Amino acid sequence: MQPTPSAASSNSAGGSGEGNEGGASAQRGRASLPTSNLLLRILGLIFIDAVAFYFAYILLGQGQTAVAVILFIVTAIVNWIFIDDRVYPWRWFTPGLLLMLLMVVYPLIFTLYTSLTNYSDGHLLTKEQVLSQLESQYFQPENAVSYTWTAYRNNDGTFYLAFKDPQNNYLAGNEQDGLKPLQVTGDLPATLKDSGGKEYQKLESAQTLQYLGTLTKMQLKSGDKLVRVTGLGRASESVQKYVFDPATEKLTDQQANIVYTPVRGTFTAPDGKTLSPGYSVVVGPENYFRVLTDDNIRGPFLSVFIWNLVFALLSVLFTFAVGLGMAMILNDKALPLKGVWRSLIVIPYAIPAVISTIVWVGLLNPNYGQFSGLIANIFGSSPAWFSDGFWAKVGILLINTWLGYPYMMLICLGALQSIPSDMYEAADIDGASPMLQFRSLTLPLLLVAIAPLLIGSFAFNFNNFGAIEAYNRGGPPIPGAATPAGQTDILLSYTFRLAFSAGQGADYGLASAIGLFIFVLVASLTAFNFRFTRRLENLT
């Protein structure tokens, strides 16, 4: 039966009403969702802004105005991106970009700046800090008058000192008012008043001792005289030892009558005498020239660089050879207990590298190491794994091969299993020997899959600081080297020793220059890796 027009219209109206109500509720849901999202965004931005302002306040207090301004600008950009919906896609990129700026760009810029300075032991402070230290030094001239003193203190914590010279003449005052003659007959009174009428109470001996550290920092002037507290109850006329002239940038030693001129961040006298400490200044590309021209640095640097290349290449070669051999054995269908063998072979990869290296150091110990003892029992003596440069390098390569071959075995095993078996069947039919099949079939197809991983492994071993440091800390030393370089040091460990070696001083500027050299090498390897990977993709 067909519905009547009135019923149909009624149903239609009812359906339309329900649809309108559903649409309205959906619109209300869509309207409420952006509001809640906006509220969450605002709360998150408030937290970010609070953290940013806190760090900016610290930076401004340390005089890092430029960094604080950059922080303000970056924070403002982040607020704009997360509030304005017109730049919505940038919200997905912002966290990654900020982390890249914080973890990559800023350290790189700071390292570049440091490499252009003489920042090192003896030049760690700013010029203002050095001048503050030097200008705080005083000396007593030959005819200096000695005083005894008595301390007074006000309720607000300010001090007032009364000085008596050998002729029983009194001077009294503080740093604000200076020293003025004090008319006293007999002993000093219990209270004294300054020029403003403020009253000070005399301190007992125990109280004076309590505030002695503060009192010795006071410098009181009477005309051209400067009186300083030199000890408990003792004071003397003093003269500032070093006076700096901002117009000529020269520092005068008033005691020895010597004028010092700043040379590369060090105040230097005409006869070559220098003052310590110095301060950090920009010296331009001098650190890079030192690496290229200074024989004391160039010789060890070239030795370390050549060994670094050899170490990375041989580590990749040995781990790949052993890993591929293990993978080919495990890929044999006739091998029983494959799961057991795979579990045993992968054990070195599962143990932290530092722990494995330390265990191997114990095994190679010439006195009680089991491995060295076994070699000594067979050949009569064991190699000097730590004191001889050649055998130390052999030991590191041995340990690195042990640590790296399970990784190569895993990737080679996966690549071998991806090669179609019908290729080998066709090669057998053609009469190709197993060696010819490996050289002409297995190895080329394997390299197509794992060549980028080999390049990545080379880059990793090029900066494998952990293995070098845990084995022998880069030793033994290079004979005659003027820098703290060892025969097994790689560039990264050599840079670390230049920057933080307490025995021969820290040279952060030179270390930063070498660090940038390492960065360029690793960046070049990464670019080559990307290009080589793209070529292999086009080949396949």
Your description of this structure?
The protein has helices spanning 5-61, 65-83, 90-115, 127-135, 205-210, 212-215, 286-293, 295-330, 338-345, 347-350, 353-363, 370-379, 389-417, 421-429, 434-462, 465-472, 491-500, 508-539; strands at 138-139, 146-153, 159-164, 170-174, 178-182, 191-193, 199-202, 219-222, 225-231, 234-237, 239-240, 242-245, 250-253, 258-263, 266-268. Residues 1-33 have low confidence and may be disordered. The protein is elongated and about 125 Å long. β13 and β14 form a beta hairpin. α8 (295-330) packs parallel to α13 (389-417) and α11 (353-363) packs parallel to α16. It contains 18 helices and 15 strands. 58% of the residues lie in helices and 12% in strands. It has three domains: 24-88; 138-240, Beta Barrel (Periplasmic binding protein-like II); 291-412 and 450-539, MetI-like (MetI-like fold). The strands form three sheets. Strands 2, 3, 4, 5, 6, 7, 8, 9 and 10 form a nine-stranded antiparallel sheet that branches.
Structural topology:
Layout (H helix, E strand, L loop, with lengths): L4 H57 L3 H19 L6 H26 L11 H9 L2 E2 L6 E8 L5 E6 L5 E5 L3 E5 L8 E3 L5 E4 L2 H6 L1 H4 L3 E4 L2 E7 L2 E4 L1 E2 L1 E4 L4 E4 L4 E6 L2 E3 L17 H8 L1 H36 L7 H8 L1 H4 L2 H11 L6 H10 L9 H29 L3 H9 L4 H29 L2 H8 L18 H10 L7 H32 L1
Antiparallel strand pairs: 1-11, 2-3, 2-7, 2-10, 3-4, 4-5, 6-7, 8-9, 9-10, 12-13, 13-14, 14-15
Helix pairs in contact: 1-2, 3-18, 7-8, 7-18, 8-13, 8-15, 11-16, 13-15, 13-16, 15-18, 17-18
